[in-house]
Design a protein that fits this description.
The complex is a heterodimer of chains A (374) and B (505). With 374 residues, chain A is of the alpha/beta class. In chain A, α11 packs across α12. Chain A is elongated and about 80 Å long. Chain B has 505 residues and is α/β, with parallel strands linked by helices. In chain B, a hairpin with a 5-residue loop joins β19 and β20. In chain B, α2 packs across α3, α17 packs across α20 and α19 packs parallel to α21. The N and C termini of chain B lie far apart (74 Å). The relative contact order of chain B is 0.11. Classes of the chains: A alpha/beta (374), B alpha/beta (505). Chains A and B meet through α8, α16 and α17 of A and α7, α21 and β19 of B.
């Protein structure tokens, strides 16, 4: 055992052990200093009677001993140092106060970026990865407008709603910043197409993970990640979620912690909004625009700058076609039928609307984009 | 004791003349076939022997050697049975040699001396040139369609022997009652709604554009594709002859008139093997599904489920209109000029309006990646087919019938051939400005699409060809392509959402 390594190094190595659940790691670190906990895990030290119970599984002990034999200890620490990560232990002075009193606090936290952001106002925006154009647009707008009002936006850097919320927060003119909690290591930028976004969040906001560098995004890590998102937020906003979407895990964690819940209503035919509509039916507060969130946070919202839509307003047939898509997604056939236009006239109208950016098409379906005409 | 009888074998869709030489000599009794016969051909030894004896004819108790000339060329199948039997009887002195001089024999023998049809009679008769074909009665239609002169038919070997020895006249040609048994193509008027998809079928037929239908199960993709051949004009005489040859060579039953005159429709299942699709396999290189679709429509349902190698095999025929099948001992060029219609779901779960898909991005991406790449690029038309709405289903009366649309298609095709000498899908990119100039508004619209990266360079040329076809269908084939034509063409090329970021432009 090397004497020159800081306690954080032992904790990081422990966190990267196979089968090292939050519960096991928490138990080890609560009762022993990190270097001693490491020695226990690899079988070189006897555990205290209190925690022997959590370590009885022979398979787990064997896997840990194998892990302990490899050069994991130094390697894990070198990676943290190389990436410039702060490693926070539960007892550290810098460990977020918000998490210290949590029912299931992260035993180790890997942080990149500005930790003082956790002292500001924070709202989580979560939702489905497979969002509609309207949902993505709402998430982006809400993210930007919350950040404009100096509220930090907490989310998970996933595809769909999460990524859009962070993107929106990065576009701000205000002091709000993105705070991301991810389920994998800091160097495993997942999903790949969010690599640039991931870097921007780390540079301009805060990027947190319970997993040491090199950890891959395994499915079981996401529900745990969601609990941290809920724990870090003052309010959780669900933009779009299916009936059994993963964002409902965040919702449950928020309910458990007594954190207020808000949901953006969606069309009754929109399956991507079936979960959020159910939340509203169950009593979640409704979010139609950023004001609703700011009121829930008891903030003065009059400072939020107005937003002017730069797109030229449609008129004539274009307006009819736009309003037809604004209700629900439509195909070109559906539009022609609903607007009583010929196929060619409809094609002309959608070409003009798409050019200006009022609608967008995917898989042959047209959706209205952006805030509705007022 | 030597005889030579003319016959033919099949390689791909071409007949090759074969001379069957039979030598009967003293020596140990035996029967040997030389000249690169394949397994089926070698077995004819036993069939011929049984058939000759069942017909009440003497079998020589001498040494019999059969040579299939040219002996360097591989011969396959059972079509040489009849020629071998006749050659043997001539060599044995049972039939006078001069009786068989102007005749070519084709057919398989049954052990009871009956004649059975073989595949590829049409191209093999084609190889006879001025010879009079003698074929099994069941092959009469095929022989009749190709042969310039009379055709001799028989049901039994004995009938032929009697005719050749002058004992009896040739059996009469069968006077089939003319029955119109060409396949009936279902009518477009059965389709409710689906205005865009209908238009896509019409454009595909008029310009020869390949079409990809994208939509959830039950939206009517197969129903639409089945109605495609009704929109295409009848085959030109040259094309009809090629199609007939292919069908004959593959052993597919021909219609009563003997010629394939209507464009064929082939819909191979997605589990089809490479060989069944592109051809080959046997030593005679049997034509595959894509050749059977020559002149007509090849419909690939569930495109993503076909194995990638099979889809890759489609690239040469799509490019050149032929498929070159080469094997170690033989190679053949098979015709394969078809209109490709493919159908696919947008994702594994079937999709639907945005937000209704349950698939995660990875699964979606994998699904579409199987289609993307070179093959996806060849579709000029990509059309979303949604499940018809309630309004459409309740709409009184169906849509337009096939005949009305087919008339427009025919006019547009004629116009294209008359003014440009080719179908619109074949216009080279360098000629587009000449034959499909754009009005300023249309040019602006395309520029916008290109600038927003909603269109690739290749997509740009395809859109222009499709817009030309739409303009042709509407009226004047010499006028410049207008904004409305381009707008419509863009709608016939939907963007597939591969993931949140990536789209197939």
């Amino acid at each position: 055992m090397s004497a020159d390594l800081p306690p954080e190094a032992y904790a990081s190595a422990l966190a990267s052990f196979p089968h090292m659940s939050i519960h096991r790691l928490g138990a080890l670190l609560r009762h022993h200093p990190p270097d001693e906990a490491y020695a226990i895990a690899i079988g070189e030290h006897a555990p205290s009677g209190l925690i022997e119970r959590v370590l009885v599984d022979d398979d787990v002990r064997a896997a840990w001993q194998r892990a302990g034999r490899s050069a994991l200890l130094h390697e894990a620490w070198q990676r943290c140092v190389g990436l410039g990560l702060r490693v926070l232990l539960y007892d550290d002075a810098d460990y977020p106060v918000l998490l210290r009193n949590d029912p299931l606090p992260p035993p180790v936290l890997f942080a990149e970026g500005d930790l003082t952001l956790l002292g500001g106002r924070r709202a989580a925006i979560v939702g489905t990865r497979n969002a509609t154009a309207a949902g993505r647009d709402t998430a982006t707008t809400l993210g930007r407008q919350l950040a404009d009002a100096d509220v930090h936006v907490v989310s998970g850097l996933a595809r769909g709603i999460d990524g859009c919320a962070h993107r929106g927060a990065l576009q701000t003119v205000g002091a709000g910043r993105p705070i991301a909690v991810v389920a994998c290591g800091h160097d495993v930028e997942y999903p790949r197409e969010h690599r640039a976004l991931w870097r921007s969040v780390a540079e301009r906001g805060l990027l947190l993970s319970e997993s040491p560098p090199g950890t891959s995004p395994e499915a079981f890590r996401f529900p745990m990640r969601n609990r941290v998102i809920a724990a870090l937020s003052e309010v959780v906003i669900v933009v779009e979620s299916r009936h059994r979407g993963g964002s409902l895990i965040t919702v449950n964690e928020a309910i458990e912690r007594g954190i207020p819940l808000m949901a953006v209503p969606g069309g009754v035919h929109n399956r991507a909004a079936s979960g959020t509509n159910q939340l509203i039916r169950d009593g979640a507060n409704v979010v139609v625009d950023v004001t609703d969130v700011l009121v829930a946070l008891e903030m003065d919202h009059r400072r939020s700058p107005g937003f002017v839509d730069p797109r030229p307003r449609p008129s004539g047939a274009d307006l009819v076609v736009y309003e037809s898509c604004a209700g629900e997604p439509r195909t070109i056939d559906g539009l022609a039928l609903a607007c009583s236009l010929s196929l060619v006239d409809t094609a002309m109208a959608v070409a003009r609307l798409e050019h200006v950016g009022w609608i967008q098409q995917s898989d042959g379906w047209f959706e209205a984009v952006g805030s509705p005409l007022r | 004791m030597l005889a030579a009888v003319r016959s033919a074998t099949l390689l791909g869709v071409e007949g090759r003349a074969v001379t069957v030489e039979v030598h009967v000599s003293n020596g140990l009794p035996g029967f040997q076939i030389v000249g690169l016969p394949d397994e089926a051909c070698r077995e004819s030894r036993d069939r011929v022997r049984a058939a000759v004896m069942s017909s009440g004819l003497p079998w020589p108790s001498n040494r019999v050697t059969v040579n299939l000339a040219p002996s360097s060329q591989r011969k396959g199948g059972s079509g040489l049975d009849l020629a071998i039997a006749i050659g043997l009887l001539v060599a044995n002195g049972d039939i006078p040699g001069e009786a068989v001089e102007r005749l070519g024999f084709l057919g398989e023998l049954g052990l009871d001396g009956s004649l059975r049809a073989v595949a590829g009679v049409a191209p093999m008769v084609g190889a006879f040139q001025e010879l009079t074909p003698v074929v099994p009665r069941a092959s009469f239609r095929e022989a009749r369609a190709i042969s310039p002169g009379p055709v001799r038919v028989a049901l039994y070997l004995r009938e032929i022997v009697d005719a050749l020895t002058g004992v009896a006249p040739w059996p009469d040609e069968p006077d089939d009652d003319f029955v119109d048994d060409e396949p009936v193509v279902p009518d477009l008027s059965d389709v409710r709604g689906q205005a865009t998809a209908r238009m896509a079928l019409e454009v595909a037929a008029a310009g020869g554009h390949h079409l990809l239908l994208v939509g959830p199960p039950g939206a009517g993709k197969t129903m639409l594709a089945q109605r495609m051949t009704g929109l295409l004009p009848s085959l030109t005489p040259a094309m009809a002859l090629e199609a007939t040859m292919v069908h004959s060579a593959a052993g597919v039953r021909l219609p009563a008139v003997g010629m394939i005159r209507r464009p064929p429709f082939r819909a191979p299942h997605h589990s089809s093997s490479m060989v069944s699709l592109v051809g080959g396999g046997t030593s005679s290189l049997r034509p595959g599904e894509i050749s059977l679709a020559h002149g007509g429509v090849l419909f690939l349902d569930e495109l993503g489920e076909f194995s990638p190698a099979v889809l890759d095999g489609l690239r040469q025929p799509l490019e050149e209109g032929v498929i070159r099948v080469a094997r170690a001992r033989a190679s053949a060029t098979l015709p394969a000029r078809f209109l490709l219609i493919a159908a696919t779901n947008p994702c594994p779960c079937g999709g639907g309006p945005p937000g209704s898909c349950d698939c995660d991005d990875g699964a979606r991406l994998r699904y579409l990646r199987r289609l993307s790449g070179p093959l996806l690029d060849r579709f000029d038309l990509r059309v979303g087919v949604a499940k018809p709405g309630v309004d459409d289903l309740l709409q009184s009366g169906g849509g337009e019938c096939t005949a009305t649309a087919a008339a427009r298609v025919d006019r547009a095709r004629r116009a294209a051939i008359d003014t440009r000498g080719m179908l619109n899908s074949e216009i080279p990119a360098s000629h587009l400005d000449l034959v499909a100039p754009l009005q300023p508004a249309a040019r602006l619209m395309l520029r916008n699409e290109l600038e927003r990266e909603r269109l690739t360079g290749r997509g740009y040329h395809r859109i222009r060809r499709v817009a030309r076809t739409i303009a042709d269908l509407e009226g004047d084939p010499t006028e410049a392509v207008g904004e409305q034509h381009v707008a419509m063409a863009l709608q016939l090329r939907v963007r597939l959402r591969v993931s949140m970021r990536e789209q197939v432009a």
